[in-house]
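Example for tutorial group B:
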């Protein structure tokens, strides 16, 4: 089934872009949009040529202004939990992609929008971007993983402040708190995302995949267990063509051409 509320394109070989496309609703996530994103991301996980995904929002005002409050307000407890399950599995599918995902936050990233950005590996933001978990103003806690991913990314004190107050922070504060990697003028945001994506797409795909997994999975392990996991992955990398090519290219003083095998 084709997507209704997202746009998917491939601006360059290996670089995919997913644009949430409900600009009149500030790209709020209703059920259809979440299903569109999840399905597109699941397809992308199987795309052999995919090296990087950029996620952004349509228009110049909003990345994603959260879950769709109008659709959500009438839900029963069971429907609410199902909706949360859909949201959780969608952001998890993003996080599980075997290549880097860059959120290019071009405006509001609130509630489920901030949580979706948190499931990406990098967040870059336009100068006017705003971040927040305002769910407590609506009578619910964050439902798409915000209470877990936000403290893991910026520490519990600042995450607690954002989640429990519901107050928003601007892009510069998000940068200084480590939520955002870089802030750019709005008209340069997508070009900067593309530049970053080009760099990433030239790296050895299997080494990138292993590295991403080690950083994410290691965060929930003891240092000893995480180092042991890194040790095994390092050894495994020596079974790849990319390791042979990367090291040979260095010695031969030329650029490596990686096959992803
Ligand atoms: N949902 C639905 N419509 C939204 C929306 C949203 N989150 N955000 C904006 N819109 C709609 C507005 O209703 C308006 O539509 P019309 O009235 O024109 O039909 C249109 O987008 C333009 O918005 P505004 O007129 O309000 O624009 P402003 O520039 O004045 O204000 C704003 C922009 C982003 C500050 C404001 O729209 C706003 O505060 N929006 C709501 C932001 C928010 O609270 N986001 C968090 C949503 S809650 C759970 C599962 C999931 C979740 C929680 C629990 N479980 C089941 C456990 C997730 C929760 C959330 O994400």
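The residue assignment follows.
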């Amino acid at each position: 089934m084709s997507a209704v509320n997202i746009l998917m394109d491939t601006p360059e070989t290996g670089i995919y872009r997913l644009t949430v496309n409900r600009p009149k609703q500030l790209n709020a996530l209703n059920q259809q949009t979440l299903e569109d994103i999840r399905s597109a991301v699941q397809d992308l996980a199987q795309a052999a040529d995919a090296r990087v995904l950029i996620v952004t929002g349509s228009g110049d005002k909003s990345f994603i202004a959260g879950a769709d409050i109008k659709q959500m307000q009438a839900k029963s407890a069971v429907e609410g939990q199902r909706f949360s399950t859909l949201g959780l599995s969608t952001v998890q599918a993003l996080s599980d992609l075997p290549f880097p995902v860059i959120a290019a936050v071009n405006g509001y990233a609130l509630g489920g929008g901030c949580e979706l950005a948190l499931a990406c590996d990098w967040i870059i933001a336009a100068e006017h971007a705003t971040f927040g978990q305002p769910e407590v103003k609506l009578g619910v806690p964050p439902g798409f993983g915000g209470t877990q991913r936000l403290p893991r990314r910026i520490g519990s004190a600042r995450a607690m402040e954002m989640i429990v107050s519901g107050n928003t922070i601007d892009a510069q504060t998000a940068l200084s708190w480590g939520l955002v990697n870089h802030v750019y003028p709005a008209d340069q945001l997508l070009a900067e995302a593309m530049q970053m994506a080009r760099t990433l797409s030239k790296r050895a795909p299997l080494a990138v995949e292993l590295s991403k997994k080690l950083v994410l999975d290691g965060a929930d392990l003891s240092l000893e267990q995480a180092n042991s996991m890194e040790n095994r992955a390092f050894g495994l990398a020596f079974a790849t063509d990319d390791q042979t090519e990367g090291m040979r290219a260095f010695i031969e003083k030329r650029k490596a051409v990686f096959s992803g095998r």
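Residues 25-26, 28, 65-70, 80, 83-84, 87, 108, 110-112, 134-135, 138, 140, 142-144 surround 4-(N,N-dimethylamino)cinnamoyl-COA (CB under 6 Å). Compare this with the pattern of hydrophobic and polar residues in the output above.
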